[in-house]
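Anyone have tokens for cytokinin dehydrogenase? Sequence:
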Amino acid sequence: MPSLGRGDHGHRVNVSIDGMYVDVGGEQLWFDVLHATLKHGLTPRVWTDYLRITVGGTLSNAGIGGQVFRHGPQISNVHELDVVTGTGDMITCSPGNNSDLFYGALGGLGQFGVITRARVGLERAPKRVRWVRLAYTDVHQFTADQELLISRGAGFDYVEGQVQLNRTLTEGRRSSSFFSASELARLTELALGTGSAAVYYIEGAMYYGDRSAATVDRKLEALLEELSFVPGLAFVRDASYVQFLDRVGQEEQKLRAAGAWDVPHPWLNLFVPRSRIHDFAAGVFDGVLRGARPAGLILMYPMNRDRWDDRMTTATPDEDVFYAVGLLRSAVAAGDLERLERENEAVLELCDRAGMGCKQYLPHHASQDGWRRHFGAKWDRVAALKATYDPRAILSPGQGIFRAVVAST
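Reply: yep, here.
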């Protein structure tokens, strides 16, 4: 995916070693930010799973991944923005300067302005990663261990989780960038032998460098002893930091070669309150999707709400811990798109009917009333920001949040 301004890349990604930040054009790809900062031994703290997307795009939503439990989303790691508003003004904003626009634009879905520059905090970059996947058949043990891991000050530097519906293992595409053929066979045997609808994986990563290389395995072994995964089903890899962060990009190349990348992706991403995650799993994995044909990836992992800044626009559940659940599925065969969209609607209806208090991430709502419910207590602030910075409602009209000129408040 090419980005605007790519030819001017050298002038649009500027690293400050003394300030420990990088100034980045909103059109730049995170993949390019990674390589520019690594030249100085530095790195942003938080990464989306896929790197070939723009800085301005992720910051207009939140930017989530396995480091969020510790550092917050990407929007929580921004020091300053340049924003072009709907009134045509270029405004530099930060927590201490035009702060209403700063907090509004971060997670603001492009409703108040276009992010043209972001100042993103950096840290020292590790060199390598111990990359781990742990298999579970019990969703309660799976979530308990995930929540233990995100509560620790030390341990994994990255925590995510996957839900592998059993039919995906027994009938789906039997290849993996992580698992060997023999490991996939063991997991398939596990899926066939369990009474649950799915096999669950915790995916963890422990960063290390030259000085910590001698102790990383000891730390990892001690951490694994505290967890309740299926005995014998802990899989450990060693990778460079870049290989680990660009793991989805490597998978992309395989899918492109197979003609399975440029297909419709009716994805559904939700934030699910911790108190309802088991209700969600029962209703969705044991219910709506139990007989679903293999169609892609399902993510499920917890985050700490105290790492998010509530002044920003992104809507999250009102609990100390909530889960990101991503139904990242692909329509590869005739009829898949309609079926997947129906299943997504059934999931949303289940959440609404059960009063789970879920919030969509990368949201879509068919009415302004739906958007009001989505933003909840933030709605009045969202409407006031729209009236101030885009009173003619010319930015991102396709979302249907504001269908007409917003009256001044």
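The first strand starts at residue 13 and ends at 16.
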